[in-house]
Every structure is written in C-alpha cells, then in structure tokens.
C-alpha cells in the first residue's frame, strides 16, 4: 500500500471527500437565505472543519492536529467559491507535469509522486485546470490549436514513446484495463449509463445520480439568459427529468457563436467529442468545468456545483482504484465493484492503453470462454485501428476471402500478430465467503471448462469473418486462429483455492500430441503463466504456494510465475509489518512440514538449516495431535485396512510421511474417486492421477492421510485457528507442555528468529533452483505496491531478483548472504490491472528507474538494466507467439 505524505493526503481529501461533497450538495439544494457574504463564510468554515475531521479519521493519529489545521486553513481561505481559483492545482501541475510542445506529460523525475497523486485525484483535473488557465491567459486563441492540443494528450499523460524501443506487455488482465475515466464516463455520459443501478439502493448509486443531475445543469449552462440564479430551484423542480442527458448535436450547435476559448465554446467542443466518440472526451468535459469555475462572471453557487461534482467524481474514482492490503479486498471490492460490473468494455480504449507504439505487443489474460470468434474479431479490429492499418477492399460484396496478401494487406495481417491470449481459470468464488464456510472447487465445472476450451480451439465455424479477410476461406494464406491462444493461468484470490485443484487440468491441457483441425501446421504448446505467492497469511504459506505451483503443474523452461512476492519480500520485514499471523491449523501444519523438508535438504550445506531442524520437528509434533486428517470422518469410522481390522487413529506420523502426503496432492481427487480403486487408463486419468496406484494402497500412511484429508474437506470439518507470533526459543518451549484438545478453537505458536532467517535463506535457494529450471518471474510493480506489504517501488523485490548491479549477488553480498544463489533470475515487467492501479507499461519502467536511483544506482546503469528487461519482454512474446496467418505457398511467416 502506497505511503503518502500529509500534503498528498490533504489534496486527496480536498478533491475527493465524500463528506465535503455531501455538505456542498446540501448547500445546493437548500434555498438561499440571509446575507450572501455570511453564507459563503459559513460554508468555508464548514469545509475547513469537515476536511480536518476527514483527514484525521482516514489516518487516525498519524498527523499532528496543528499541522492538519494549518494546512486546511490555507486551502479553505476566504476566496474559496468567491474567487475563480482552486487551491493546490497550479502548484501540483508545476511540480509534477511538463509541457513538451503540444504534449502534457508527467515529469519522469517525479513519476513516483505522480503515481501517488493519481491514486487520490484524477490527473485529468490537473491538466484540465492548466489548460483552462492557458485559454484564459491566451485569448483569443485559434480553435484549431486548442483542439489539436486536447486531442494530442496520451493515456495517463505518459511521455511520448520512443518508437525505436517497443515494449511487450506479458501480464495484463483484459477486465482490468478499463480506466476510471472510461468506467465513470460510461455511467455518466451515456443514456443507458445508469440502467444497471435501477432499483438499487447504495451510496454508489446516490452519488452517481447526483453527479448526473449536476452535470446536466452544468452543461445546460449557468450563463443562459432567463435561467433562475438559484440552483436549488432547478434541482428541486419536480417536473425536471433528473437523468436526461442533453442532445449532443443540439448542444454543439447552440454554442457555435460563442467566443473561442470561452466556457461555452469548450462545452460545444465537448459535445462534438461525444458525437464523434473521441478518446479525449473526458478531458474536454473537465476542461469545460475548469473553464467554467475560472469564469470571473460566475456566481459562487455555480462554483459550489462544480467543486461538488469534482469531489464526488474523485471519491467514486478512489473506490475504483485498489488501495489496501490483500487479494480478497481487491477481488471483492475493486475488481468486482458494482460500477465495473455495470460497464461494457471499450476494446479500442483498452488497446489504445496497451499498444502505445507501433512495435508494442501484448499477451492479455481472460477467462477461456472469452476466446470466441466474435470476441477475437472485436479485439482484432481494435488492434488494427490502433495500428492505423486498413485492409484491402474485397473485390465484391462478401468477397473478403478473395483478398490478396499483396500491398497493404501484409501490414494489416502483421498488425493482427501483435497480441496473443492467455486463458485463466479462476480461484475466486465470485461472491463474499459465507460465514463458517471454506471455499471448495467445483471440479466438475472446471473440467468442463477445460473440455470446452479444447473443443473451441478445434472448432472451425465462426472464424471466416471480414476482420480475418475471410479466414479459412481465403486461399492466399493459412489461417489458424487457435494459435492466438498461447498460455494458461490460474488467477484470482489464491487464499480461496490452492493450485492443487487446477494443476491436473493444466497438465492435461498441455500434454501435447492433441488432435488438430485438418490442414493445421504443427506448433508449440501452451506456456504457463500462473499467479502464485502474491498474497499470503504467512511467508511460508506464500513460498509453499509458489513451490506447489512449480511442482504440481510440472513447470518447465520458459514458464512464468506471476507476482511471486513470497520469494522476494524478506520474511522478517513482512512479519514486522504484519504483526500476528493467523492461519487454519491445516495450513500451518503444511507450512511446517514443507519447511522441514527443505531444512533436511539443506542441512548438509547450511549450518542454519541444522539449527532450525529440531525446532521445526518439535513444532510439528506439537501441532500434529490437533489435526483431523489422520482419522476418518465420523461416517467412515469402520474404514478397514488389508487385514480387515478397523483403521485406528494415527497418533504419530514422521514428517517424511506427511511430506509424501503433501506430494500426493498433485493428483485430482475428483477423478481418482471415479476410478473406483481401479488404475487410470485414459489419457486424462493418466495425466490427472499419476499416483493412483499408491493412493489405492490402504496400508500406505501417506495415502491414508491424503484420502482422510479429502474426506474432511468434503465434510467441512472445522479446524482450530493458529495464531503465530515472533519470539525466541524460550517462548516456543513454553508452549510444548500443552496437550491436544479437540474442542480448542485457537492455538498459539511462535516463529523464532533463526527460523525467519532460514526462510530468508530458503528464498535464495528456491530462486536459484527455479532459475536453473528456466522459470521466469512476472513482476507487476505498481500492482504489488498497491496490494502487498510494500510502501514504495524501491522496496519491490525485483531489485533482489534481478538487480541493476549484480555485484550484490556475489557470495556474502546483500542479496546472496548465504551463498546459495549463482546469479539473477529472469524477470518480466508488466502492469497487471492498469485501470484499477492507474499506470501504463512505460510508467512502470519509469517508476523502476526512479526507484533504482533512490537506492543509489547511477541513472545510466538503471537505464541499461531496464532496457535489458524491455528487450527480454519482447523476446519472450515472440518466443511464445506462433504466427496465426501463414503464406500458403511457402509457409513463411509474414
């Protein structure tokens, strides 16, 4: 979660306070009484008090009240609403933004401060306020100059790309690209924008309706002759249609005679942008509101209306942007927010943010069902439009299949090769977890999704569309649309469902030698790009989740681990920020057994492993009696072994057997049950249940544990909660005298300092092993800072995984303290969800460069390091990409 300064939080409070917006709304709907001067003085005082209280409530006890009050006193001065100025915006623009010809972009040396501000306030407001000042100071200005400048601005106001340095986006969710301006604009600026909110009662809906009502009034213009000065009369008019948007054509035509650069002229340009569907219509809207606020003739109550709209906007926007700990919060409150679910994606705007420069490429993630001829055609059309390519006209109606690949058609087809698809299964349940219920995978459903995926990749119907120049009907090239589908992933909240539920399906889907449609050429199989170790309740949980992903999915050279923060954030640092750690008993036992295995593995080369090994074994022995896995559920008490005698409770099991039972989780229990004690025979069964023979052995202790565990999971057996704190060995020994109590709900345990140190060493060991396997880590810096226990980009573990100066990886160096690493592990830089955590791919690189400089790295060294990462990202895209369109004559790619 980003750590911001007082002034940054104060700015966010002033321009995005729900309480202040409500107070201003109350002022607008209340008929004017008394002396106007007293009215505005009283409103200024109320704003001051509300802002102080809001800031102190949002960040309790963090700042001195004296400092907060002095700061807010300067923001809510006697000129607020009465004068045409808003506080802070000019200073922030000068500090963070730069005018470069017609372009306005953030200063790359201030990119970290810009990223922090962008989480609180829409950067469009800064740019619109600056442009409104330019219009005010430079009048009269040529209209074409204003239109050129507004239309030239890039998404997120990123600096212009270097066309000679293409970038590759390797980890981005198609559903997470939609920016706040697109989401809110879709709700506010389309006639059907609030249709999803009908009959819904929530503060989201209330705020949106207020914004829509205010927007209608502000667009109809407070300058129009004959209108009452008092806004309350307009708002409270029972005959008015509170949700009717203006007719954009009429609005544009009605202001054509307005002076160029005036608020009414800008309003006309905004209406024309809405008619044409211009990408920068959101900037035109805020430019109009800022120009209106600056108008010296505007009465204060209309300024109150403008500020109320802006504050409501930024408050809603802040709810759309992830800012808090953990994936559960992200999935339930941000990714599935009501506003996002109610908006239809604008693929062209999404692609505009992804493929900025001509050579940029991207691998996008979505559910497997999203890969269909219709959806791919829409995405391809957006890519072609962004590439500024035009296919050749067919020789006759519906004659796309006769189009030759000569001339402009070649570049057109090349533009369609700029992207590829990665299908992900979802761990998340799609709703908040029910009280007392643990999530459980619907394996019947997931296997059906896997079957449907293979069927869709072999399906030939629906692909002969104009976007593909006739598809398979075109004899001038071989069209193989299944080649767009290049990767497999498991995404969502990894605290809901573990990778063991999905690994058998992933192994089966990429087994190779699969039937293909007639005439399709041979191609490589899927690569894996799996989320793991992003959010976890204990460092061991995150590390084990990563290791389970690598082992159970049988990852190989070129496969990628998404996020993998558990391999980079030092355990002692993470624990210090987390405090108490709370885990279900089964997860805690898994962690200890898994840690025991690696302590045993490293005991011959690392003295620290020998030191912690007996501590771990004592902890396992203490926790073991509390578990239920080692006895059958109540309905299965008479489960018999080979000699016909009832199976008794297992009172003592060595850690080696527990680890063997853990390894058996790579098998699909769902399909094993369907074998009915038989051996696997089909290809699916062999892939999904490779250890069926061992699991069927009733006398095998590890197999028994595996079976009992799944029986208890099916029965929803409730296990105690373990609360873990950091302490010394004496604190841990004090717990060994406790006896197992089946009815006990909470158990205490202690992580000792040597164990935390060994976890740090184990991270190094795993990084080295995975690097030798050829695995890659997909880093998503801004996403990780927003969700994980990181406070700035300079804390990101990319500087440990693949540092700019690799001398820190020498034996005994900062990032190779135990001498277990042989060098850097390969990484990719991505955005993840650039609409929910506002960023762009090039912004990610700029943030990493500034973070590296803050860590003491020379600028030239940092830039060389980042350029190497950029090139590697492009190489990985082309390594995994297989040409979708091939020449029929010589089978040579375009």
Concise summary:
With about 900 residues, the protein is of the alpha/beta class.
Summarize the structure in words.
With 894 residues, the chain is an alpha/beta fold. Helices cover 47% and strands 9% of the residues. It is built from 37 helices and 15 strands. Helix 23 links the parallel strand 8 (527-532) and strand 9. Helix 2 (18-29) runs antiparallel to helix 15 (300-320) and helix 12 packs antiparallel against helix 13 (263-276). The longest helix has 23 residues, at 36-58. Mean pLDDT is 88; it is low at 635-646 and 890-894.
Number of helices: 37
Strand order of the largest sheet: 3-4-5-7-8-9-13-14
DSSP E strands, number: 15
Q: Residue share in helices?
A: 40-55%
CA-CA gap between termini: 45 Å
Give the overall pLDDT as a whole number: 88
Low-confidence blocks of residues: 635-646, 890-894
- Beta content comes to 5-15%
Q: Could you state the oligomeric state of the chains shown?
A: single chain
Largest sheet: 8 strands, parallel
Structural class call reads: alpha/beta
Radius of gyration: 30 Å
What is the overall silhouette?
globular
């Amino acid at each position: 979660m980003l750590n911001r300064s007082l002034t940054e939080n104060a700015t966010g409070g002033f321009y995005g306070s729900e309480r202040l917006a409500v107070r201003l709304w109350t002022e607008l709907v209340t008929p004017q009484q008394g002396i106007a001067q007293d009215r505005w003085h009283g409103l200024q005082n109320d704003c001051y008090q509300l802002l102080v209280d809001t800031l102190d409530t949002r960040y309790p006890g963090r700042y001195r009240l004296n400092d907060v009050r002095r700061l807010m006193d300067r923001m809510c001065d006697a000129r607020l609403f009465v004068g045409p100025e808003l506080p802070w915006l000019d200073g922030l623009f000068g500090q963070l933004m730069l005018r470069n010809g017609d372009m306005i972009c953030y200063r790359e040396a201030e990119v970290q401060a810009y990223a922090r501000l962008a989480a609180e306030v829409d950067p469009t407001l800064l740019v619109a306020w600056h442009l409104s000042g330019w219009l005010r100071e430079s009048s009269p200005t040529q209209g074409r100059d204003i239109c050129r400048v507004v239309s030239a601005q890039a998404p997120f106001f990123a600096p212009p790309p270097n066309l000679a340095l293409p970038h590759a986006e390797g980890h981005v969710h198609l559903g997470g690209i939609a920016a706040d301006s697109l989401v809110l604009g879709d709700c506010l600026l389309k006639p059907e924008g609030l249709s999803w909110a009908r009959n819904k009662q929530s503060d989201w809906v209330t705020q949106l309706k207020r914004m829509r009502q205010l927007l209608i009034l502000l667009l109809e213009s407070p300058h129009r002759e004959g209108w009452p000065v008092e806004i309350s009369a307009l708002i409270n008019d029972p005959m008015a249609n509170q949700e009717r948007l203006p007719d954009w054509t009429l609005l544009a035509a009605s202001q054509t005679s307005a002076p160029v650069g005036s608020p009414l002229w800008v309003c006309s340009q905004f209406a024309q942008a809405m008619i044409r569907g211009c990408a920068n219509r959101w900037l035109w809207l805020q430019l109009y509101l800022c120009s209106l606020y600056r108008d010296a003739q505007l009465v204060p109550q209309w300024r109150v209306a403008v500020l109320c709209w802006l504050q409501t906007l930024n408050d809603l926007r802040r709810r759309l942007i992830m800012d808090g700990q953990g994936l559960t919060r992200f999935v339930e409150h941000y990714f599935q927010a009501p506003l996002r679910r109610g908006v239809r994606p604008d693929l062209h705007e999404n692609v505009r943010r992804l493929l900025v420069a001509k050579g940029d490429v991207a691998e996008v993630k979505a559910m497997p069902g999203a890969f269909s001829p219709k959806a791919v055609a829409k995405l391809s059309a957006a890519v072609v439009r962004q590439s500024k390519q035009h296919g050749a006209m067919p020789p006759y109606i519906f004659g796309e299949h006769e189009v030759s690949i000569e001339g402009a058609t070649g570049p057109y087809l090349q533009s369609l090769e700029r992207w590829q698809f990665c299908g992900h299964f979802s761990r998340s349940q799609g709703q908040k977890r029910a009280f007392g219920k643990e999530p459980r995978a619907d394996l019947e459903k997931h296997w059906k999704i896997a079957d449907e995926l293979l069927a869709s990749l072999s399906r030939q119907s629906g692909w002969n569309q104009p976007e593909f120049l006739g598809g398979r009907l075109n004899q001038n090239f071989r069209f193989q649309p299944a080649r767009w589908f290049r990767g497999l992933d498991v995404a969502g909240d990894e605290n809901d469902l573990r990778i063991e539920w999905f690994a058998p399906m992933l192994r089966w889907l990429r087994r190779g030698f699969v039937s293909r449609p007639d005439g399709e050429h041979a191609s490589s199989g899927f690569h894996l790009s799996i989320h793991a170790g992003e959010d976890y309740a204990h460092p061991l949980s995150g590390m084990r989740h990563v290791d389970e992903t690598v082992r159970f999915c049988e990852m190989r050279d070129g496969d990628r681990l998404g996020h993998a923060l558990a391999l980079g954030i030092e355990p002692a640092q993470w624990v210090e920020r987390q405090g108490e750690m709370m885990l279900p008993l089964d997860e805690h036992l898994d962690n200890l057994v898994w840690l025991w295995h690696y302590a045993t593995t490293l005991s011959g080369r690392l003295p620290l492993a020998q030191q912690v090994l007996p501590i771990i074994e004592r902890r396992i022995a203490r926790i073991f009696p509390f578990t239920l896995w080692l006895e059958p559920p109540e309905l299965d008490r008479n489960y018999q072994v080979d000699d016909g005698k009832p199976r008794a409770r297992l009172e003592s099991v060595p850690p080696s057997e527990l680890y063997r039972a853990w390894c058996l989780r790579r098998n699909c229990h769902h399909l094993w049950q369907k074998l009915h004690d038989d051996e696997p025979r089909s290809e699916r069964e062999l892939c999904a249940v490779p250890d069926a023979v061992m699991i069927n052995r009733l006398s095998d202790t590890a197999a028994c544990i595996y079976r009992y565990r799944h029986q208890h999971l099916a029965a929803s057996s409730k296990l105690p909660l373990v609360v873990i704190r950091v302490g010394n060995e004496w604190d841990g020994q004090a717990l060994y005298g406790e006896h197992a109590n089946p009815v006990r709900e909470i158990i205490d345990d202690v992580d000792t300092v040597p164990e935390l140190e060994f976890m740090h060493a184990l991270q190094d060991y795993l990084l080295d092993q995975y690097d030798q396997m050829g695995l890659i880590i997909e880093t998503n810096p801004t996403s990780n800072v927003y969700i994980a226990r990181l406070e700035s980009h300079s804390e990101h573990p990319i500087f440990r995984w693949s540092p700019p100066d690799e001398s820190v990886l020498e034996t005994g160096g900062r990032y190779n303290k135990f001498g277990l690493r042989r060098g850097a592990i390969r990484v990719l830089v991505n955005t993840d969800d650039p609409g929910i955590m506002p960023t762009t791919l090039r912004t990610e690189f700029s943030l990493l460069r500034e973070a590296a400089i803050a860590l003491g790295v020379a600028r030239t060294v940092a830039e060389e390091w980042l350029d190497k990462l950029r090139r590697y990202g492009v190489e990985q895209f082309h390594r995994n990409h297989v040409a979708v369109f091939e020449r029929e004559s010589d089978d040579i790619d375009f």
